[in-house]
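Postdoc handover notes: sequence design on the structure in folder B. Input tokens:
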């Protein structure tokens, strides 16, 4: 047999398998190529699964970050309201102190005038 007829004979599909349970395709494809194909398929499936998991984790992280930012924003808004309320209270106390100061100065002036009249 010449080389081309040997090659042709290697890759022809027999009509039946010589070993029961082995398909005709398995008898054509060498074992190392079948192993490579199975490995590539398994790696491809694992890579696709890893990509799905990574995407899901990325979405979860994004949601958690958004929740954290929202919580921080709420805390800042509460603090700003607290400081606004505090500023309002301090403004009222300042006005009361000014009134008290004016009242004390007025009484002090009255007592000085009264003292001067007596002298």
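Designed sequence:
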């Amino acid at each position: 047999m010449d080389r081309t007829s040997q090659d042709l004979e290697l890759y022809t599909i027999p009509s039946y398998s010589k070993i029961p349970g082995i398909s005709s395709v398995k008898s054509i494809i060498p074992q190392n190529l079948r192993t490579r194909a199975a490995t590539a398929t398994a790696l491809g499936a694992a890579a696709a699964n890893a990509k799905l998991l990574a995407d899901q984790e990325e979405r979860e992280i994004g949601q958690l970050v958004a929740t954290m930012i929202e919580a921080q924003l709420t805390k800042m808004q509460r603090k700003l309201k607290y400081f606004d309320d505090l500023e309002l209270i301090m403004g009222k106390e300042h006005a009361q102190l000014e009134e008290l100061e004016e009242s004390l100065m007025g009484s002090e002036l009255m007592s000085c005038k009264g003292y001067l009249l007596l002298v």
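Context for whoever picks this up: Residues 8-16 have pLDDT under 50 and may be disordered. Don't rerun without checking with the PI first.
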